[in-house]
Design a protein that fits this description.
By secondary structure, the chain is mostly beta strands. The chain is built from 6 helices and 16 strands. The chain has 2 domains: 260 residues, Porin; 74 residues, Photosystem II 12 kDa extrinsic protein (DNA polymerase, domain 1), CATH 1.10.150. The N and C termini lie far apart (75 Å).
Length: 350
Amino acid sequence: MILLVLSVFCCRAAFEPVFESPWLQGGIASSLFPRTPLVLTANPACLGLLEGHGIAASLSRPYSLKRLDRTAVAGCLMFSSYALGAAISLSGDNSYTEATAMAGGAWKLINGVVVGASVSIRRLQISGYSSATGASADVSAVWSPIEGLFSTALFRGVLRTELGASGDPAVPRSLELSLGVVPVQNVTCAAGVSRQEELDVEYCFHTAFNPHPNLGIATGIKTDPVRFWAALELSLSTLSMEYGYREHTRLPGTHSIALCWGRCASRPSVLKFTAEEDQHDQPDTQFPIDVNSVTEEELQLIPGIGPSKASAITSWLRQHGPVSSVSDLSDVPGIGPSILQVLSEYLVVE
């Protein structure tokens, strides 16, 4: 009887997994443009796309069922060539609880290629019956062949144990793929496909728009069955808040909220088809350049600095005035430790 009950819960989780962030409702497609460290729970390699350190917490009520209330907390540390993260999530009530602890990292192998891996430990407990514990590992990669174009592949459950003595796997295995693009400034689009064992192929679509630096809107769809979702993000300095809602054709809607501290959201550059476009009609520039007199065009000649980051830097300098050190640019939204290290190689204070 105990094993039967555990199996029922495992099957439900396998058929309809719960996301850990309002911005991740689109599954693998949403993970390509992460906003918080909670992306670790969806795709460990995408942790490497974040711009800086951060910590986030989320609350959700899946399918309007109070007994399934879920809480998650995640944090990340960003370095020049790698990122480390950890997350914990809890759900259930006094009769049924599920706890997951996860740790992972992402490594930038070469320019435009990031690989990631994570390890999870899950524990299920049913009051009056028994409990079970299992572990699993996920691996993934993200690559950007040209600026503004991204793709990712995730193999979930590449390694896994049985869930206690039930004989069931700790997680269902799945292969997930996604392709994303930034067609114009402040707009992102992505489409993904996934195949989980024992289930049919599933498709997902994600699009987001930032009409203002402090406002983000996202929406998308997953099939089959059809699930529509939308998310709203408001940010102020280093603090951001998200709200999400997902409508299911066969189940009640899901509400979720999240808070994030830290300038860690990814800010990808607009699509560019050839490297020559970056250099077209650009004047000859000799580096290093004085940071207090650098132009947007000159900043875009620095590897990893696209139009959005160049505009953010020059706007911040105009607003706050000259800086005494290149390290002061860490206060610019979207400039994390890895980008700051690159800037220090091309900019000086004269």
